[in-house]
Amino acid sequence: MSPLTVTVLVFPGVRLLDVTGPIEVFTSANEFGGRYRVQIVSEDGADVITSAGTRLSADRAADEVREPSDVLVIPGGPEWETLIKDDALLDVVRRLDATAGRTASVCTGALLLAAAGLLHGRRATTHWRFTRQLALRFPSVRVEPDAVFVRDGTMMTSAGVSAGIDLSLALVEEHYGAEVARAVAKDMVVFMQRPGGQSQFSKRSQIPYSRQELLRRILDAVAEDPGANHSLSAMARRAGVSVRHLARLFHEEVGTTPARYVEQVRVEAAQILLETGDDPMAVVARRTGFGSAESLRRAFVRHLGVTPGVFRSRFRTTGLVSDEPVTAGTSAS
C-alpha cells in the first residue's frame, strides 16, 4: 500500500502548533501501522518565520507540487486579517486544494479557506474567538461555533490551535482505523475524542449589542447580577412591557430567548466562580441563580458538554502546584 501524502502549507507568521500538531499525529501514526509521507510547502519554497519566531524549512515551493495530495493542511496565524487579503497566497491555497483528496484547516486557517472561496455553502468552524468574524465576513459559510472540528464533504475545519490534533486523529482513524488512531492518541497523551465542545473554553461576557435602550438595560441587569430573579415575567415587569413584547425584542435583537440568554450568562458566572474559588457546587449554584447543584450540572452539560466538576478540575490548575502527579482525571490535555 502506497503512503498517503500530507501537504502542509506554511507562510510567514503561521502559528507553529497549527503546523507541528498535525505533523506529529501523522508521523506518529507511522509507528503504529499508518503510512504517511509529510511534505511542508511554502509559496516560493523559502523558509518561513512563524508567529513564535521559529524558522520552518519548506521541502519545496507550491509550484513544484506535481502529485495530488491525499490531505492538504491549511494552518492559521495571528495576522489572519492580512493573510485573507493576500491574493497570491489565496491562489496557492486554491491550486493545492484542486488536487487534494481532502483539505483540512486548523484554527484561523478556515478564514483562509473562506477567503479563497472554498467554504461557500459549507459547514465550518474556527477558533471560538473568530467564529463571529467568519460568519460576518463570509455569510455563505454555515458556522458551527461550538464544534471542535467539522467535516463537510472533502473539507474539514477545526477550532483553535490544538484542535488540529483532534482533526488529524480523525483523519488517521478514517484512513487506518480506530485502533491506529487510539494508539497515536495514547502515545501523545491526548484525548481520542475531546470531551465537550469549544464553548467550554470561550467567554460569553460580552453583552450583545442592542439598538433598543430598554433591552440594553435588561441585558446589563442580567450581566451585573446573574443570581437575581430574571424570569421572563420579572424582567418584563421591571421594563414596563408585556411578556410577549420582551420576548419579541430578545428574538429580534439578541437572536435567542430570554431564558436561554439568562442561562448563558449564569453559566459563565459559574465558570468564573469555579475557576477562581473553592465554594461547593451548591453554593456556586445559589450564587449564580441556578438554585441547586443539579440544575447547575444540567446547564453545564447542555451548554459546555461537561459537568461543573470536570470543568473545575480542567481549568482550575495545571496540577503542578503540588508534588502530586497529574493524572488523567486532572489533566487538561
TrEMBL record:
Which residue ranges does the record assign to the HTH araC/xylS-type domain?
216-314
Q: Supply the Pfam families for this chain.
A: DJ-1_PfpI, HTH_18
InterPro entries, sorted: Class_I_gatase-like (IPR029062), DJ-1/PfpI (IPR002818), Homeodomain-like_sf (IPR009057), HTH_AraC (IPR018060), HTH_AraC-typ_CS (IPR018062), INH-QAR (IPR052158)
Keyword Translocase part of the UniProt annotation: no
Annotated keywords: DNA-binding, Transcription, Transcription regulation
Q: What is this protein called?
A: DJ-1/PfpI family protein
